[in-house]
Structures are given as structure tokens and as C-alpha cells.
From TrEMBL:
<protein>
    <submittedName>
        <fullName>Putative tick transposon</fullName>
    </submittedName>
</protein>
Length: 314
């Protein structure tokens, strides 16, 4: 509370202060009150120092606490120390009148220098405050209502795409190629069990693995590239059965015309994918890289040249 008196008459200021405290204690039993009196022209009120002159009242930010500022050589983060400097200097500007604002600012600078804050830090904070004062109050930016577009992060490419997208008000975020799930194998044991093969194969050509892009070598020197979300041995069994039927696919047609045979035991796993789209894209990329003269299979999806170059950059 700030109590103003019209006059004290013949009483001393100390006696008037005691009488006021008596009224406060009587009206608020159980609470403890302290008070400060005006000393000369000055009166300390909370963190403000009031100066009473003949024509006006000046106020200056003057924290009453005697506790020193956190030393700059402490083990705390630089961000915390910068926030302390910003809080002190900003309070000296916003909580002081224009008559004594400079004195309040210089007093806070002196406190910060005494705590070991380098002059370069105080200069940077002062420049930031100056820009804030000059810019005035700005309206908060509205958050985009549309969902952001997600693209994989690629050095020197993703940020340039985001700059172009910002010109057309298209929000964009990046996805990391390495997920946290890949850093914690034990957490993914449950999901890995779901992807494991539970079939007891009669003819097991290679080790069981699920969700793969595979390459089958042929006796003529060419290869067959395909993909499957099931166990690779199940897919090998289907290829072997197709060679004995009259309704086979590309592998059957080539082996019939070339009089060659696939070597299932030497099948290679060249990629993996959890979803069908991932496997089909990787399959099409592998077929394109193998070349039409070396690979006898056809891709499930068509990839443009730019898409192939994009995958090559991974």
C-alpha cells in the first residue's frame, strides 16, 4: 500500500507511520506489516524508488533486494544468463520515467558488469531492446490453418524449397531419415516379431525375411527383381510353381524363351520396406538401375528421371 498524507502537523513522521501500522494490524489480525518512510525526497516503494519534487513525481526501477546477480562464470546455460541481462535492462527502461531512465539503466549495467557479464553480451541485449522499442507492439502472427507439407531433409535442398514455399504461404516441415525407433532396437522388438515369418517352409531357399526387394540370378546371366510383403521364401515358392504352369509372369516367359532357369538359392535381398508403396518405389529404382538388357522383370510403378535422381541423392 502507498499512503499519502496531507500533512503531519506537529507530529513526527515516525509517529504517524506507527499509527498507520496500528490501524493495519487491527484490521488484519495475524498479518505482519513493515513500512518505509520518505527520506528526503526519496521513498522506496516495492521495486520502485519514488522521487518527490516540487512539480512532479519521478519513479525509477530500483530493486530492493540486496541479493547479487548470478555470476556469469556459473555453470548455468548462456540462454539463462542472457535472459537475466534482458530482464534487468528491460525493467530499467519500462519501469522508470523518462527523467531518470538513463540513471536506472546505468545502474543495472553496473550491477551486471559487477557480476562478470561481458560487455559484448550487454551490447547485444541492448540492441535487441532498441529494436523492440523502435518496432513497437506488433500483432502476433497467425498460425497457418492448412496442414504443412512434409519433405525429407536433404542438405542444401530442403531449406531452399522451404524458402520458395513460404513465398506462396505453403507451410513445410522436414522429416529426418533416421527415426528414433531405429536408435532403440529393444523398443521395436514387438514390431519386429510381427514382421517375422511364422511359416514352416518345405523348401527353404534363403533365410526368412519379410517385406523385401529381392534379386534372383538366372543361369543366362540376367536377373529378376521383385518385391513382396510376405516371406521371401513364399515368393520363391510361387516363382518355382509358376515355371511349371502355363500362366506365369515375366520370369516364366523369359525362362521359356531363353531356356534358362533361376537360381533361387543365390537370391539377394537388395532392400526392405514396411509398406507396399515403399517396396514398389525401391523395386522400380532397382530395375531402372539394372537396365532393361540385364533385368527381365517390369516395375510396378513408373519413376520419372527426377525421381530417380532424387532417390540416388539419399
Amino acid at each position: 500500500y502507498l499512503v499519502f498524507l496531507r500533512g503531519v502537523g506537529k507530529l513526527s513522521l515516525q509517529k504517524v507511520g506507527d499509527d498507520v501500522m496500528t490501524v493495519f494490524k487491527r484490521c488484519s489480525p495475524g498479518l505482519k506489516f513493515t513500512y518505509e518512510l520518505q527520506v528526503g525526497q526519496y521513498l522506496q516503494f516495492l521495486d520502485l524508488r519514488l522521487q518527490f519534487t516540487g512539480q512532479h513525481v519521478c519513479w525509477r526501477y530500483n530493486p530492493r533486494t540486496k541479493k547479487e546477480i548470478l555470476p556469469y562464470d556459473s555453470a548455468h546455460s548462456k540462454l539463462l544468463k542472457q535472459n537475466i541481462a534482458t530482464s534487468c535492462l528491460q525493467a530499467s527502461l519500462y519501469r522508470s520515467c523518462h527523467h531518470v531512465m538513463l540513471d536506472s539503466y546505468e545502474a543495472q549495467v553496473k550491477r551486471l558488469l559487477g557480476a562478470g557479464f561481458p560487455l559484448s553480451v550487454l551490447l547485444g541485449v541492448s540492441q535487441t531492446l532498441l529494436k523492440k522499442v523502435k518496432s513497437g507492439s506488433q500483432e502476433p502472427k497467425e498460425k497457418p490453418k492448412q496442414r504443412p507439407q512434409v519433405i525429407p531433409y536433404i542438405h542444401k535442398i530442403s531449406h531452399n524449397l522451404k524458402k520458395v514455399a513460404n513465398r506462396f504461404n505453403v507451410p513445410m516441415v522436414f522429416s529426418a531419415p533416421q527415426k528414433l525407433a531405429q536408435l532403440c532396437p529393444r523398443v521395436n522388438q514387438a514390431s519386429s516379431r510381427k514382421m517375422s515369418c511364422t511359416v514352416k517352409h518345405v523348401n527353404k531357399f534363403v533365410n526368412c525375411i519379410v517385406g523385401v526387394i529381392y534379386k534372383i540370378p538366372l543361369s543366362c546371366g540376367r536377373v529378376y527383381i521383385g518385391q513382396s510383403g510376405r516371406c521371401v521364401n513364399e515368393r520363391m515358392r510361387e516363382h518355382a510353381n509358376s515355371l511349371r504352369s502355363m500362366t506365369g509372369g515375366h520370369l516364366y516367359v523369359h525362362c521359356r524363351d531363353c531356356q534358362c532357369h533361376p537360381i533361387f538359392q543365390d537370391t539377394l535381398i537388395i532392400g526392405r520396406g514396411r509398406t507396399k508403396v515403399q517396396r514398389e518405389v525401391l523395386e522400380a529404382h532397382a530395375i531402372e538401375k539394372a537396365g532393361a538388357g540385364h533385368c527381365v522383370s517390369q516395375p510396378s510403378v513408373y519413376l520419372h528421371k527426377k525421381e530417380i535422381d532424387f532417390i540416388d541423392s539419399w
